[in-house]
Amino acid sequence: MKMNKPKMASEKGVPSTSKVHILLAQLERMTGDSMVTDPEASRQITSKLLHLIQTQEKTGREVMSKGTSGMEVILSSLESTRDSQTTLNILCILSELLTLGKGRRVGAFVSKGGTGVLLRILISASREGQPSEELMLQLHSLLAKVGLKDRKLGVKARLSGAVNVTVNLIKKNLQNIKLLLPCLQVLRVYSVNMVNAISLGKSGAIELMFKILAPYSKKNTSLIKVTVDALAALLKSKTNARRAVEAGYVSTLLSVYMDWHRHDTWHRHTVIRKGLLCCLRNITNIRLGRRAFTNADGMRILYNSSSECLTVRTLDPLVNTSSLIMRKCFPKNRLPLPTIKSAFHHQLTHVLPSGPVAQLYSQPPGGRTNTQLCNEPLKKVDDVVDDSDDNEDMDADTENDTENEEDEKDEKDPRSLNEDIEKDINKLHPQKSPGRPFEELKVYERFFVELTEDFQGHNIDCSTTASTTSSSSSARPSRPVIVPTAQALSPNHVTTQNSQVLCPPHKGRDPPSPPSTATAPLPPPALQLDTFRFNKELSKKEEMQQELLHALECVSVKAEAFLNADKHKGSSISTRKPSQSPLLLEGIAIRCMAGGGGSDCGSEGTEDEGAVLEVPDTAQLLPLHDLDLYVEMVKGTHSVPQYTEVAYPDYFGHVAPTFREPLLERVYGVQRSKIFQDIERLIHPNDILDKLLYDLDVPSCPVIESDGESLKFNSQFESGNLRKAIQVRKYEYDLVLNSDINSNHHHQWFYFEVSGMRVGTMYRFNIINCEKSNSQFNYGMQVLMYSVQEAISGRPRWVRTGTDICYYKNHFARSSIATGGQKGKSYYTMSFSTSFSHKDDVCYFTYHYPYTYSSLKMHLFKLEAMRTPEIYLRQDVLCETLGGNSCPLLTITAMPESNSSDHICQFRNRPLIFLSARVHPGETNASWVMKGTLEFLMGASSQAASLREAYIFKIVPMLNPDGVVNGNDRCSLSGEDLNRQWQNPDAELHPTIYHTKSLLQYLAHMQRAPLVFCDYHGHSRKKNVFMYGCSVKETIWQTNISAASTELQEDLGYRALPKILSQIAPAFSMGSCSFVVERSKESTARVVVWREIGVQRSYTMESTVCGCDQGKYKGFQIGTRELEEMGAQFCVALLRLKRMTGVHNHQHLLDLESDLIGTQPKVVSSCSTTYVMDEDEPSFLEAVDYSAESNDEDGEADSEAGASSRDVSGTPDSCAAVRLSDSESSKEAWKTGRVANQ
Ligand SMILES: [Zn+2]
C-alpha cells in the first residue's frame, strides 16, 4: 500500500517557522526515493526530531495537533526508509508521541494505518535472520500500546504472520527481561483472539508461560503479571485448557497461587493473585479441569485461602473469583429424592399424545399414587441426575467459526429480539374463528339467564338462583379435618385426635425455659376440627349454652382488649379454664386454644397449667372471613393427598398490617457468605447433621419424633407443598419443594409450617430446588411469615420477614431425562434467615399471601350476604375439575330498575365484562386482586352502583382450583399449564378452560362478545402491576414484515384501559405494559380471546409478588391491601372507560382515547427506574452470581421466558422508556425485556 502523499501543514495557528515543522517538512520532502538514497540525511532529521520531542513536551502536541499531518509524514517516512537507524529513530519518536494523550494519540495512529506499518516492519525484520534487539523491543513496545486501541490487532497479526515472530522471540529470550516484557504484552493482546489462542497453544505458548511463571518474588512483578494475564487468555480456549490439564498444570497453578497468597502479606500484588485465579477459573470451565482441580485438593486450598482473605475488603475480587471456581467445581449432586416427579400422582383418564405429561408418562413409573401410599418400595428411577450430564461442554472448540468476528461477539444480535414476535400477518388479524357450531354452544345459554330473563314473573329482588358452590360439595361425607400443629406430625394423630383434651400453649407471659431442660418443650397449640362442628352435634349444644353464660362475663372485656391488641401487645389474653368447645358470642368467637397433651411428647408440664387462650374472631377486621364457615368449606374441598388439616393462617385469616413494609436492602456479601457456608459442607462433612425431619416420600411421613433439637415441619394442608426437610446444621435446614402434580418441575410457590423453635435464635432455611434463573428475592422481596401466637394476640397477619435473603445457583442438578433434553440444569437455592419471637409458636412461611380454594368459596359465600335488592348476583358452577372441585362462575350486574320493557331492554343490552384469575396456582396475588374487584363490585358505593348499571360482569375467579388446592405452582392436575391450552382445550383434561372458552364462543355467536376481557396473573420477576394486550400495529413495529398502510390503521381503544389505570392506580405502571403478540403466547387466554373471539381489549393483568419501583408505593413491598386496591381500581377504570366514551359511539371513543393517550401519566418516574436491565433490575454492588457455570447460560431461558426476556435494549436511559406516553412507549416497553408470567 502506498500512502497518500500527506499535505504538509503550516496552518491552524501552528507557527510554520517552528523547528518541528521545519523538520517535518524536510522529512516529507525526503519521503520516497531520497529516503533510501540518502540515509544519512534521514538519520539526522529523525534524530533531531526525536531530540526535540524528548526535550520539549509541546513538540509532541504540535505534531499531533488537529489539522496537521505530522503523523502521516512520520508514518510514510517509516514505510519508505530502509535504514535501520532511521527506522529506530522513528520508532522512538512514535514511542514518545504515543505515551501521552490518554490513548487518543494511539487512536489517531491506528486510524492512519500505523498498525499495518509496524507489522510489516516486524515481518521484514524477522526475515533478516538476526534482527536487532533494540528494533524488536521498540516494535513490541509500540504494538503493546496499539493493542489497547486496535481491537483488530490480533487478527491483523495472525494474517500477517507476526504472531509467530513474537512467540519465537519469546522462546529465544527467556532470560532477557527487557525484551521479554513488551513481547509478552503483545502476546497477551494476541491471545484474546480465540483463533490465535488455539494456534498459540499448538505452538507451545502455554508451556512457555509456565516457564516464565514463578513463585513469589519482589522482582519482575510486571513480567509475572503480564505472563499470568496472557496465560489466562490462552486458557479460555477449551483446547488449551485441556492441554494444560494434561500437562499437570492445575496443581502448579494452585501451588504458585498459594505461594503468592502466603508471601504477599501487604497485598501489593493482588492483581497477580487475581490473574492466577483467572487461569484456574478458565481451566475449570472444562470438566477435565474441574476434576483435576478437585483431585489437587483445590477446594480446600481455595476455601482456606479465601477464608483468610475475607476480612480484607480490598481482597474481595480474590474471594469472589475463588468462590466462583469452588462453586463450579463443587461436585454435582442429585437432590435427596427418589424421583423428582411429584410425590403425589393423579390418574388421568387419558393423556394427550404429545406434551409434557406424555413425556412424563413415557418414563418408567416412579411417583406414587395416592392410593399406593408407599406400601411397595419405590422403584429407583434416577431421573435426578446422571453422570453424563455433568454440565459438560462440547469437546471440540467451536472457536474456529468466529474468525474475524471477535469484535462483534459481545453484541447481541438485534434479530434475536424479534424471534418470538408473531410475524404471520394473517395471524395478526383478529379473526373470529367459527369455533364450534351454535347447536353445541346452546347448552351454555343457562349461564346467561340475564340475557333472556324477562323478570315479568319475578319480584325484582328475588332473581338470584344462587347455587352456591358449597351446596353441592357439602353433600359429600365429611371427613375429620384438623387444624395442623406440630403435634399432628405424630403418625397416630388421626386416631387419637377425638379423645384428646388439648392443653394450651404458653403465651409470652412465660419466661422461656432454658433449652437444655429435661422437660420436653411445650408442644404448640392444636385445633381440632371436630370440636368446631358443634352445630351438628346436638349433644354438645347444652354444654355450649353453659359455656356461653360463663363466657359472657368476660367477653366485653375481651372484645375490647382484642381491638386494642395492637397497642398493648400480649396484654389482651388472659388464662381461663380449659374448655373443649368453642364459644360463640355476638360476632366475637372465643376459641379455646389448647396445646400439648400429645400422647407421645409428654404433657406433664402442661396438664396442671391448664391455661386456655382465647382466639378472637377476626370478623370485625375481616368482614368476609368466618372461621367456622372456612372449616366447612375445607370439608368440601378435594385434594389429591386427601388433606385433613387446616392451616392456621387460612383459618384465622389475614388482616393486612397498617405499617408499610419496605423493600429489603441487600447487604453486600450476603450471597458470598451463604455460598461459603455451602462450600464448608464439602470441606467439613463431619459438621453436617443430615437429619431427616420431614419426608413425603416415606410411608410414615412425617418421620420425626421431636427431641427438642430440631424444628418440626408440616405442609399437609391446602396449598402446602413442602416435600422434605433436612436439618443440615444446628440451626440450618434444607427444604425441598414438591413438584406440581403429574409433573417433575415447577417449584417456586411454597407454603409450610414450622414449630418447635427456640426464641431469639437465628435459623437459616434453604429451599434447594428452585428452578428459575433469578428471583425477586435478589431484589428486595422477603418471605412471608404468620405466627399463630401473634394471631391469638389479635394480630392475625402475614408479615414480610427474613434477612440475608438471596437466590443463587447451587450444586444440585437434574438429569437431561428430567429436563426433557436440556443438559444437567442446576437448581437454585433461595436462602433466608429468621428468628422467632414466641416460644411454643407455630409459624408458617410462604412465597406470597396464600389464598386457598376454600378461602374463595368462603368469600363467595360471604359475598352473597352483601347482596342488596339492587344487585343482581348469580353464582353458578361452570364445571367440575379433574379433582372433583367445582369451578364457580359469577354474574354481577344491577337489577333492572323496573319490569318495564325499557328497563329490561337496558338491562339485557349492557356490555359484558369478562374477568378471570388464578389459572396459575402459585400466583396468589391474582386472587387478592380478584377479591378487591369482587368486593368493589358488590359494594354500596355509588361508583359500584353505576358500574353495575353499566355492565354485566361475568367472572371466573379461579380457573385452576385443583392446582391451588394441591399446592401446585403452575399446572393443573393434568400436569399442564392451563394458560397454554386456550387454542384447543380438551373438554376432559382442561374442563375449566374448555367451558370458559365456550362461554366466550357462545357470546360471540350471540354478537355479545365482551367489551373487555382480562385474566389476572401474578408476575414473579418484575415489580409493579401492568398489562399485556394485543395490537397488530405494535407487533408489526417490532418486525421487519412489510405491511400495507391499511394494516396500521388500528383502533387505539386497547390502550385506553391501561392508560386510565396508570393514572388512577398507584401500583400500576404503563411503562411495563406491552401490546405485542408473541408466538409463544398464542395459546394464552389473552391472545386467543383477542384473535378468536374478536375482543380488542383482551388483557393479561400482571401483579408483582415483590413490590413497586414507581408511584406512591415506590420502595415498598406489595401487600394484600395494595393488591385489593388494584382490583378495586380496575373497576373504577372500567367506569371511567364507560363515562369517557358512551360505549356505543365508536368514533367519539377514538377521539377521546387519542386525547387521553396524549396526556401525561400520573407519575413521572425518576431515572432510577430501570426497565432495561435483564429482569428489569439494576445491578448492585455484589453481582448476582446466580450462574456460576459459564457454560450453560444459553440454556437458561426457561419455558416461560421467551427470547425477548433476555433482551437488553441497550438504552439505559430509562426515563425515556417510562415517560413515553405516545405509541413509542409500548415499543420501548416491549424492548425492555419482558418475562411474561402469563
Ligand atoms: Zn400467570
Describe the structure in your own words.
It is a single chain. The chain starts with 18 loop residues before the first helix and ends in a 7-residue tail after the last helix. The protein is an alpha+beta fold. The relative contact order is 0.07. It contains 46 helices and 23 strands. It is elongated, with a radius of gyration of 37 Å. The structure holds zinc ion. Zinc ion binds next to loops. Zinc ion (ZN) binds next to loops.
Protein traits:
7-stranded mixed beta sheet, 6-stranded mixed beta sheet, 46 helices, disordered C terminus, disordered N terminus, 23 strands
Number of DSSP strand runs: 23
**Strand order within the widest beta sheet:** 17-18-20-19-21-23-22
Termini, distance in Å? 60 Å
State the shape.
elongated
How large a portion of the residues is in β-strands, by DSSP E?
5-15%
User: What ranges have pLDDT less than 50 throughout 5 or more consecutive residues?
Assistant: 1-14, 363-382, 386-417, 461-480, 483-614, 1143-1176, 1178-1237
Count, helices: 46
